Amino acid sequence: MVACSAASARIIDVLRSLAIANYRSIRELVLPLGPLNLVTGPDGSGKSNLYRALRLLADAAQGGIVASLAREGGLASTLWAGPESISRRMRSREVRIEGTRRKEPVSLRLGFSSDEFGYAIDLGLPTPSDSMFSRDPEIKRECIWSGPILRPASLLVDRRGAHVQVRSGDGEWESINTRLATFESLFSRVADPARAPEVLTLRDEMQTWRFYDHFRTDADAPPRQPAGALVRTDTQENRGKVSSNRKACDFRLVRASRHSAMRDAGVNLRSG
Questions:
Q1: Which helix (H) or strand (E) holds 108?
Q2: Which ranges constitute the DSSP H helices of 135-245?
Q3: How many CB atoms are closer than 10 A to CB 192?
Q4: Over 70: is that where the pLDDT of 1 sits?
Q5: What is d(CA 44, CA 22) in angstroms, rounded to the nearest whole number?
Q6: Strand pairing report for 138-146 and 155-160
Q7: Per-domain residue ranges for the chain?
Q8: What's the pLDDT tens digit per position in 199-256?
Q9: How many degrees, rounded to 5, is the angle at CA 190 between CA 170 and CA 52?
Q10: What's the angle, vertex CA 92, arms to CA 86 and CA 95, rounded to 5?
Q11: Minimal CB count within 10 Å: which of 41, 76, 140, 192?
């Protein structure tokens, strides 16, 4: 699903889990990760939504997660459309899982953890008003913590609304004199290497994530189209003659794309 450049290959080794709540078809998921992960399943099972959630997290480090949500249609299009809780009868498939009227605040939550740091973000809707922007998503909270598990004692940076506070060297909380807009991630404005070095470290790591979803695999994709592969024979008699080998051409294009992606991810491929 995702690979990293060779310069940041260690991220593959330390990314331990991915957490998603209320995003499209994913109501609540905490997924353990290893050095190499393969996600399979039938059509409509949520594979693409898992990938898109990871990409949204990467957009947070670029300062563009709210804009990315807007391009997807806003929270109205991306929020989990099912019930707020799954009943026993739903789990036993006695009744269908269908959406109901919401009672709790809208909340789309994403996060991940690694050996060194963890990060989570909570997005919701503004306070109801007559504004034309009352349905625009906004960032409610962001957290950065030390280690693979979020605990109160491990929390290093805590953003609530426009206010950001960081934990000082003596363990006390200090406020950052930067008021964030509701669409701004803390990665966009909090850049203090002395008071909040973990923000810069985590942002730099997330910005090295690489996604290869631009490789088309549909029936009209270029690698699937018939094309002539130019093959020059070894004999003097037939030298210069060209033969068409469509299968060889398709295989070479796919193999070249695969090797390029694996090479960027720092994965060595050996035949044998």
A1: strand 108-114
A2: 186-189, 197-206
A3: 13
A4: no
A5: 16
A6: antiparallel
A7: 7-211, 223-264
A8: 999 999 999 998 887 777 778 888 788 876 555 555 555 444 444 444 444 555 556 6
A9: 115
A10: 70
A11: 41
